[in-house]
Description:
By secondary structure, the chain is α/β, with parallel strands linked by helices. Helices cover 47% and strands 11% of the residues.
Amino acid sequence: MSDPHKVLRTVFGFDAFRPGQEEIAQAVINGENVLAIMPTGGGKSLCFQLPALCREGVTVVISPLIALMRDQVRSLRELGVAAGALTSGNTEEETDAVLDGLRNGSLRLLYMAPERLASSATEGLLRRAGISLIAVDEAHCVSQWGHDFRPDYLRIGALRDALDVPLAAFTATADTETQGEIVQKLFGGVPPTAFLRGFDRPNIHLEFQPKDQPRKQILAFAAARKGQSGIVYCGTRAKTETLAQGLREAGHNAVAYHGGMQADPRREVEARFSREDGLIVVATVAFGMGVDKPDIRWVAHADLPKSIEAYYQEIGRAGRDGAPAETLTLFGADDIRLRRAQIDEGIAPPDRKGADHGRLNALLGLAEALGCRRKQLLGYFGEEATDCGNCDLCDRPPDTFDGTLAVRKALSAALRTGESFGAGHLIDILVGADTEKVRQRGHDGLPTFGVGKELDRKTWQAVFRQMMGRDLMRPDASRHGALVMTEAARPILRGEASIDLRRDLIVKADRRPTPKALVSEEDAPLLSALKAKRRALAEEASLPAYMIFADKALIEMAETKPTTLDGFARINGVGATKLEKYGAAFLSVITGSDAENVHPTRRKLAGRQAGTLFDELQRVQSELARGPMGTDKPLSCSTSDLRKLAEQKPNDIAAIARLLDERRVDRFGHAFLDVLHATD
């Protein structure tokens, strides 16, 4: 088996694993059955791609989306890894190349969709190919409790049994029910080695805003981040079209995406988003699983997501390269009513509806939080955290007030009108509005009529929204959306409990929020130049820009400004293949001149101690080329021999003699040994 740390550096270009990766990768390398629950953007793919290169045989990766598989295959090939995919989107030539790679043993990773397992020929193909590991991406798809259920995932367990090989399953979110079903369906009920890694994504800034001209709020957020790739999630297909049009009219490169589009236009949007810098996709949740672009700088929700898990998944598509990213989620009373109605009017059994209301309640609690949002979000997933300093409530602590009396007045108004009306009519009663509806129903004679005049309508709207967010009142579908009191509200109504509410701080849509800077003002011009070079190389190779280098690698280049290939090789994300292909081009941008002309053998050692040894050995060889007195016949070692010496570091003359012939040992042996010992 290959050394995982060496593979990490030479193939993937990283000096160290991200938190949690090494333990998971080692368990997979060891052949254990593994279930890994890791945050979106936490580096799940590396945890099966790296073991595939360390183990013997072929790793088959079951993945749910063709676009995701093709992107990962292209990324691996850019790293010099033999990978292929068998999908319905393949050309005949692509399929033949994959099958040839399986036959001749050159292919290391084979991607396929779960639907392909329905073919009786698939098992035979995999058996002949010498499959030694099954990796399952987006493993929650096996569970009917989880989102994105895919029935064909149910065949994977049988495939594991038939091939008798270890299985490693990966997902970003899985609650207790989903985890149980994964273990049952994929591992035959035998618990695998499980890893639950932290859900925190500290590079993502979290922000919620109450809706106040939401179109303008989204346009202002996008305007402050013009030129950056982003996603705007909308609750309806129609809104994706109108908001995308609005963004285009404001000068953005924006497209709509939803499930009602034909397959070809959807694929075109996916391809453009993967390929183009600065494209904004305005989408329903149909644009979700499989979005593997690491340099998405922001995600906005024009409407409230359906649950806290959905929110976590969707914001997790930002900043997967680890560089700063931002989110904005808009929400209002109408969102809450819609989400409650969707649950209540669905066909799920009562226990599932109760669980769905609980997930929505967790999200509403996050939206109406009075303290650090990240602390509350991580608390939902069972993690303790301190105030993060990277959310809107840490930036600007909320203005709160004792809302107990206001809530009691609102509950009283609802109860005295038979819990038959929505917030609008109840607010009319509370502020003493003389409307026809109030007069017709005699509600101007209620004891609660006019008792809330100390608050204006906008504040009362915020009170009712927060009451719904705290699950003190719910819209009742059987009463046409009228607000009814929940059990949670009774202690407040009876005076047994108090409640603090927030004063809404509406961020005016005409004030553009300041985006987080990726680099200092001094380094910004160099970062722009590096992005331009990346874009040109990507277009030339017909690749997405991030497959050349991720934003985070460019940021490190702009900040550290390496001037040699050795320095460039130390940038995270620069492996041997990318150094060979792109090192000189990017160095010329950084230094303003052509990069040094380095022998290909030496270039392969760039950034490693062996490179420095190679240089020293070459220097000593040059000094002794004509012998110690400078009068002997010229003699030298090949660059291949020097590379072997630098990499293997023989520790005595006998070991050197196994690499060099007698004449060269006599001429250079002891001098080389001095160089090699000096580095011990």
